[in-house]
Automatic annotation (TrEMBL):
Protein name: Aliphatic sulfonate ABC transporter substrate-binding protein
Compartments where found: Cell inner membrane; Periplasm
Signal peptide from the UniProt entry: 1-18
Pfam families from the UniProt entry: NMT1_2 (PF13379)
The family this protein is said to belong to: Belongs to the bacterial solute-binding protein SsuA/TauA family.
Primary location: membrane
Presence of keyword Lipoprotein: no
Database matches in InterPro entries: ABC_SsuA_sub-bd, NrtA/CpmA_ABC-bd_dom
Keywords, sorted A to Z: Cell inner membrane, Cell membrane, Membrane, Signal, Transport
CDD domains for this protein: PBP2_NrtA_CpmA_like (cd13553)
Length: 333
């Protein structure tokens, strides 16, 4: 199996994918002999790690299919790779999938990956004891309009009437990789973070920040898919058998996680170290695991509510209609 392990190249990747077209990866026909899967190095994406380590795609795809992997730093780069054919499927947050779909991208959510896992952390020494104290402070999320950003800004606007400077509000917004949040807290560069696991638990362990809002109290909490399995509309239409193979492997990975949590945690620790060069302790992963549910079932209604919130926060220019984004037929086989 060819494994692409260079996380450094991902930063460059996000800038060049649009020029790459679909020269690599599987062809759209049923004779595909190469498939590339993408995911992020975080706990919400453990199904991708398990499927890779357990060779589950090799088991469901036709004999001789070469399976490659790409690891992404953010949802925008991932969705661009889906649209250009650089990857055939994989796991991403619902925010980028929704945003690209409403912008005209022919993509489909064919399964969920997990729910929960977004935690709001405050820097120690930032004089923040409650969400109301965030006014005038700087918060960080992985990307503008990403899943964690929408969850955080929805909560702040609906419950506390506080918005970001992007819409002339009182909070300053910056972006960055979650693995760097602890060091940014330590340096005092940011005050608050909407953090995907396991990085929230890592911040807790390192003592640079503390939980301000548990994931169960963040907007959309455990009902919103924190990760979804996405493929292109073209691939689904032209080779539904291939998409079914991919979804079957993803379902097997999800079942494995729920039936073998200890082994799955070990896989996650090792894969995150391989990809990010950061080793998480068993204690950190245990803590993160408790904040996440691993499921392939998709809640379409909550996705539409999430999309409506993205529009209300002005991440989208038009009120979205997600009809056609979710296709559950592959998980119902």
């Amino acid at each position: 199996m060819k494994k692409l392990l260079s996380i450094v190249s991902l930063v460059v990747l996000s800038g060049i994918l649009a020029a790459c077209g679909s020269e690599s990866g599987a062809s759209s026909g049923s004779g595909s002999d190469e498939v590339t899967i993408g995911y992020f190095p975080n706990i919400n994406h453990v199904a991708g790690m398990v499927a890779e380590e357990q060779n589950l795609y090799e088991e469901t795809l036709p004999d001789g299919t070469e399976v490659n992997y790409q690891y992404f730093p953010d949802g925008s780069a991932f969705m661009t790779a889906i649209e250009t054919g650089e990857i055939q499927g994989g796991i991403v947050g619902p925010g980028p999938a929704m945003n690209h779909f409403t912008s005209g991208a022919d993509v489909n959510i064919v399964a969920a990956g997990s729910t929960g896992g977004t935690v709001i952390m405050a820097r120690k020494g930032a004089d923040i004891e409650a969400p109301e104290d965030i006014a005038g402070k700087t918060f960080i999320t992985p990307r503008v309009g990403c899943t964690h950003d929408i969850q955080f800004e929805t909560m702040m606007q609906e419950e506390f009437g506080i918005t970001s400077d992007r819409i002339d509000g009182e909070m300053k917004h910056v972006t960055g990789k979650p693995a760097t949040y602890s060091s940014m807290f330590e340096s005092g560069n940011v005050d608050v973070a909407a953090v995907p696991e396991p990085w929230a638990s890592s911040i807790e362990s390192e003592g640079t920040g503390e939980v301000l809002v548990q994931n169960s109290n963040v907007s959309f909490n455990d009902k919103l898919p924190a990760a979804v399995f996405v493929t292109s509309q073209d691939l689904k239409d032209e080779d539904p058998g291939l998409v079914q193979n991919l979804v079957d492997a993803h379902i097997q990975a999800t079942d494995f996680i729920n039936e073998n949590p200890d082994e799955s945690k070990e896989i996650a620790i090792n894969k995150i170290k391989d990809i990010t060069d950061q080793e998480l302790s068993a204690e950190v992963v245990d803590n993160a695991w408790d904040r996440i549910d691993f499921t392939y079932e998709v809640n379409e209604e909550i996705l539409q509510l999430f999309a409506n919130s993205s529009y209300e926060l002005q991440f989208l220019e038009e009120k979205p209609n997600l009809e056609g984004l979710v296709d559950t037929t592959f998980i119902e086989q």
